[in-house]
Amino acid sequence: MDAVDQRIIALLVADARASYAEIGARVSLSAPAVKRRVDRLRTVGVIKGFTAVIEPSSLGWTTEAFVELFCTGRTTPAQITVATRRHPEVVGAYTVSGQADALVHLRAADIGHLEQALERLRAEPFVTSTRSMVVLSRLVETATAVPALPDKLL
């Protein structure tokens, strides 16, 4: 992956609906050349897909929390994955270092819904306890973990 690929990725992260011609104009390539690069980046797994980013509150999901899961001694990441995928309120789940075994990101319609989701999560057979932090406001949120390139590079 070269600097042009990185610029193409940054432009797609900023606007996945940009045409190959628009991207090409920004990176000094033809539209077919950009398409070939994007196709290659998809084939090798750098680009995993394209999606719409939805504002959760517009769908009525206005409450969110991060929940530390503390699990029984032999709980595997695979078990946590299977269990958390059963809960529609879970938007992310991660194994972590520190005292907790996993960190789960939940979104819910309101506090009552969040409480129900927490109770269902706590009922998983391997969960021994949880510690929750309700989000007051989102300060920074990006659609991808790739850091944005400075505007001068775009």
UniProtKB/TrEMBL annotation:
SUPFAM superfamilies membership: Dimeric alpha+beta barrel (SSF54909), Winged helix' DNA-binding domain (SSF46785)
The keyword Transcription regulation appears for this protein: yes
This protein's UniProt keywords: DNA-binding, Transcription, Transcription regulation
Record-linked Gene3D superfamilies: 3.30.70.920, Winged helix-like DNA-binding domain superfamily/Winged helix DNA-binding domain
Highest taxon listed in the record's lineage: Bacteria
Protein name as annotated: AsnC family transcriptional regulator
Pfam annotation, one family: AsnC_trans_reg
Residue ranges occupied by any HTH asnC-type domain in the UniProt entry: 1-62
Database matches in PANTHER family: LEUCINE-RESPONSIVE REGULATORY PROTEIN, TRANSCRIPTIONAL REGULATORY PROTEIN (PROBABLY ASNC-FAMILY)-RELATED
